Amino acid sequence: xxxxxxxxxxADRRPLKSRSYAWVRRFAAVLVRAKITxxxxxxxxxxxxxISFAIxxxxxxxxxxxxxxLLLAALCVQGRLLCNMMDGLVAVEGGLKSKGGDxxxxxxxxxxxxLFLAGAGLACGYLALGxxxxxxxxxxxxxxxxxxxLGQGQDFCGPLAKPQRMFFLTAxxxxxxxxxxxxxxxxxxxxxxxxxAAGTAATAARRIIRCYRRSS
Length: 216
Hints:
By secondary structure, this protein is mostly helical. The protein has eight helices and no strands.
């Protein structure tokens, strides 16, 4: 039996409970009053990802304390998620949707995924693992967008969609920072990246299967 085609509303936006939080709404209102554009917020998310990569690069070379670099990168990941949520709120609820908004909504996300995951690979000493996770993250988004191009709506199913990937990356960065301070020998961040890569591959496979079933 074919999976149901997502509704138009569900296809356009990732379902997030956090959009309804009072502080989130107030913050979005502040950005709207300040005339901060959704595209500008999206670009700032890329800036945070680039800063995270630079920090983790520096930490991997011993230019800054490793634990500090991991902690700062975790903060950048959360900042990126906040930007991803705010650009949509400001555009839709704030009525500031602009020309090219869809491009700014998608392309920066792919750059951010690559920079955060590759940076984590550098930080744990397994750059190839970070690059594999990056490619899988981009491929998963491609499958979602391809399904939408077929008129099926954008499928945000998991198990490891972007919010979940970033949650586990944040947890891995923080755990690794604690591990460095406590002299743990296990490479927590490398295991986290391996988990993210496997979960992202499973997500891409699941979306492909669902897309195929809807096409049947």
